[in-house]
Amino acid sequence: MLTKYIYLLFSIFFIFGCASNTQYRTKEIIAELDKPAQSPVKKQAVQVVATPETDKQREIQTKEQDQEITTQINNLIIKKDFEGLKQLTEKDPNLVNYIQDEELRLMLTGPKGMKVGDIRKLLTKGKSEMIIVSLIKRVQVPYKEFTLEEIETLTKMELTEKTISAMIDVTTELLKDERRRKEQEFYQTENKRLMEQKAQPQTIVQTNNQNNNSQLQDKATEILLQEGSKMLLKSLFR
Q1: In 3-state terms, the chain is what percent helix, strand and coil (to 5)?
Q2: Among 98, 99, 97, 117, which Cα is nearest to 107's?
Q3: Residues 123-157 pLDDT 10s
Q4: Other C-beta atoms within 10 Å of 112: how many?
């Protein structure tokens, strides 16, 4: 009998101990849930900020690229390599802007097979002006927005008013397309940048001998370019 009472007493103590433990653990869980939620750590966005150094480096790279293209085109003109020059401008029509001679630059303006020089060739061979105008209207690449001076040069190159007008009209229509308009704006921005670079004064420290040699070399290159341009114009689209 005594054993039963002792067993009962131990059972009561055990139940109260478990209950107390469970109550304590429950309080811990409630306290944990009541804690304010911690906001996640925000990752700082890495933003590349344009600095004067990066802008200057980009400007130097652009100048170097422009110089490489100019040198490449001038070498072709000096060598009187018309086919090489024609292929180069057909691959990228905007490279004609690097040609200094206005008449040669206009001759190579336009899409492949219907450049200004091709139109002049068709006219001199006696092809129908009406057919030539129809062919111009069929092109999918704009010529350019000719200035009044360039239109006068085209007239001196024996292009008729109807063919010049057709080139202007087809260019205007093609530029109505938004994508082509954006491209044209980009090219204009690039041309403006090139002009601004040419207008900026450059400080160059040179000795008198180096300066004289550079001037003589530039003069010789200019003469070779003029002679090369004349030879190319004589044989152009013949």
Answers
A1: 75, 0, 25
A2: 117
A3: 999 999 999 999 999 998 889 899 999 999 999 99
A4: 14
